[in-house]
Amino acid sequence: QVQLVESGGGLVQPGGSLRLSCAASGRYSSWRSLAWYRQVPGKERDLVARVSSGGSTLYADSVKGRFTISRDNAKNTVFLQMNNPKPEDTAVYYCHAVGTTIWGQGTRVTVSS
Description:
By secondary structure, the protein is mainly β. The chain has strands spanning 3-7, 10-12, 17-25, 34-39, 46-51, 57-59, 67-72, 77-83, 91-97, 107-111.
């Protein structure tokens, strides 16, 4: 059973930077795509970025050019580098194994001065 645990969230100023990490444990398969989603109260959980096992990436238009998703298969970890975050990026960020029902517990990101 695969488990995903996010970390790295917190308070960041607009224009700053933050890196989120998601570590997979258990019987994890590096062949799966991994994704970051985010959710704010009262809204649906939305895709932020996705990375395939081969490293190809997909980004939501709202974060393209500012966020970078990457993975280290040797360490079973996926990252989300958040550069120039904006207040509208404030949300709980979740790691997800694409094609499964496996989600991390979420890590909060607050972008504020």
